Amino acid sequence: MEQYSALPLAGGLLDQPAGMLKKIRIVMNVFHSVKLYEQQGRKAGEMVKWKQEHEDAWNIISEINELRERYG
Predict the structure, then answer these.
(1) Going by C-beta distance under 8 Å and a sequence separation of 6 or more, which residues neighbour residue 64?
(2) Which of 4, 10, 18, 28 falls 20 to 30 Å from 43 in CA-CA distance?
(3) 40 or 2, which is more confident
(4) Cα-atom radius of gyration of the chain, to the nearest Å?
(5) What is the pLDDT of residues 6-60, one digit of tens each?
């Protein structure tokens, strides 16, 4: 098997800057929480139920709302 003078993991998962994958995971969690909230959590009369069923997503949404109020 030839490697063509390249590292076997060059450009792959282990070749990313330190902390990059953690940052990407955080951004994706925010994205999915906002998407879920926009699709399901804003329905009239169902918000309390949605908050209870999706507590982790609601925690992210409430943090975003606080940041918007503070810096927006």
Answers:
(1) 30, 34
(2) 28
(3) 40
(4) 19
(5) 556 666 777 778 888 899 999 999 999 999 999 988 888 888 899 999 999 999 9
| Two tokens, residue 3 | 């490697």
Residue that is written with structure tokens 């940052």 in the block: 23
Predicted TM-score (pTM) of the model is 0.70
Task: Give the domain ranges of the chain.
Answer: 19-71
Contacts of 24 (CB under 8 A, 6+ apart): none
* Burial of residue 30 (number of CB atoms within 10 Å: 0-12, 13-18, 19+): middle
- Report the helix count and the strand count for the chain, using DSSP H and E: 3, 0
Comparing CA positions, the residue from 50, 49, 58, 55 lying closest to residue 30 is: 58
